[in-house]
């Protein structure tokens, strides 16, 4: 299944080469970057571990209300959430075992260190910017499907179990399906 996915003659996504792929100064215009659709969301990589010597990745996320990202933990990945528009409820398990959540609105920020179980639910149509330990930003394309547009039309892209498992293994992401959060 593909959503407005355009390949060049070599079979690469139309946005291939937008990022330099090495530590080099560059600029992106609004809507540029490496786009991938996952469920109803579109993730856009603005800076990958390739450009930051593996230190960090920067990505945006456009998400419809109702989207729920299930509980998971990244063994070696730190992650941030910064809400630009909308509302996102972030759930985390504190070091003392307490399970807490916070509704984030425009301008609000959350940090989730590596190894910490977390989840989030999009309460209102949202735009977020995130950072993660370098390399993890490509998880969304591995689990989703590349697209040439920052907001493609069409139905959600729902990966099959094999794709989810492969992406989770490749990016050291552990899903925790039996984890429950207080409302």
From TrEMBL:
Pfam families: Cupin_2 (PF07883)
Residue span, Cupin type-2 domain: 61-125
InterPro entries recorded: Cupin_2 (IPR013096), QDO-like (IPR053146), RmlC-like_jellyroll (IPR014710), RmlC_Cupin_sf (IPR011051)
Superkingdom: Bacteria
Annotated Gene3D superfamilies: Jelly Rolls
Protein name: Quercetin 2,3-dioxygenase
Species classification: Bacteria, Bacillati, Actinomycetota, Actinomycetes, Pseudonocardiales
